[in-house]
Amino acid sequence: MTVEFNIEANDMKTLARLLVHNGLGLKSGQQLVASAPVEALPLINAVAIEAYKAGCSLVTPILTDSSMNVARIKWAYDEYLDTEDDWLAEALAKAYEGGAARLAITGSNPNLYNNLDQERINVVTKSYINSRKINSSYSSESIINWTVAPYPIRDWATAIWPNLSCQDAQTKLWTLMRSAYRLTEADPLKAWDNHNHRLLEKASKLNAMCLDALRFKGPGTNLCVGLADQHKWHGGKTQAQNGCIGNTNMPTEEIFTCPHAMKVDGFVTSTRPLVIGGHKIDGIHVAFENGTVTSVKSINGQSIAPLKTILNADAGAKRLGEVALVPHSSLISSMNEIFLNTLLDENSSCHIAFGQSYRKTLMSGNKLSENEAASLGANNSSIHFDWMIGSDRINVNGIIGNNEVSLLRDGEWVL
Hints:
Blueprint: H1 9-24, E1 31-37, H2 41-53, E2 58-64, H3 67-75, H4 86-97, E3 101-106, H5 118-140, E4 146-150, H6 154-160, H7 166-180, H8 188-209, E5 213-218, E6 221-227, E7 234-235, E8 238-239, E9 245-246, E10 255-257, E11 259-269, E12 274-276, E13 279-281, E14 284-289, E15 292-298, H9 305-311, E16 320-325, H10 342-345, E17 351-355, H11 370-375, E18 384-388, E19 395-400, E20 403-409, E21 412-413
Parallel strand pairs: 1-2, 1-3, 3-4
Antiparallel strand pairs: 5-6, 5-19, 6-11, 7-10, 8-9, 10-16, 11-14, 12-13, 14-15, 16-17, 17-18, 19-20, 20-21
């Protein structure tokens, strides 16, 4: 008899409280749009209860099933394959314009698109990117309060540990995630307050340094990332334009800011696999010149077609929109696992992100127009995805004029 995986009721309730109060900072009267894989419905139910207790006026769930993507790629007629769900994007935009908060529960199978036609995958991926353009500014400009958080779905867990049973794999994944969410602490909400304070302190120190650039050096990496004029480091909770304060990513271990889109030079090699477009790609080597990608390849011969599709999304997709520092000894990194999930893996490693900058990572932040932000070096794109470049063999220096100061040595803070 198959034993179903379940999260203990108290853990589910506590996680829901964290997402509503610590993640979203939900305020009374707000609506909430909550998207999630169908397997995460129990968490969405728990979130809805906590949200209503906090005064939420309406919770609207949007449940997804990745097998629908496979069905579309395999069976949709060629002439309809690029159909965009504009109606849904427009409805979501209307909700966010009306003040709704956004919660995205994530969890996907990194092997989902194995053995499917790559050209058809590319068409579907492009249609998804295009249909989401209308909503990108609500998060990138922090117009609304939003949070992204993972859930241990079955196919994701078994992709990490294929030799374990489904239940054992999910249990192992949840055990690690439970620690990452700090549910193992006596008072998880207090633990998050303390953790956010530590991240904010580190960001404040970096802001006081007024750095011009960062230099990453290590095996296969010698990359200089110029920082945007008037850049601002963030760590922990941030405030959205609507006044709500929360963590946009949970869990989080990063200190991040805005790179200068025109001032990135050198080369860099990924230190963890990138899962994108239903594919896992390892050993990505990318070269930059004057901010833009000049070459991209896999050092072990894997296909990088999904990555190239994303990088060709628009003019800004080949430039950086975020750079983040994470010590190798971070809580998630110390678990010593490759999670095949960007949200968890990026919080175990220093990383950079192609695509859209976050307006809040500039001093004047959301008061700036798109053109004003661009003049300071912020990037504009319809996409934003992170990939990992840090490890215990990477050193990071801060550059101030002609001087360099050590920030991380062998992946650990020396600041």
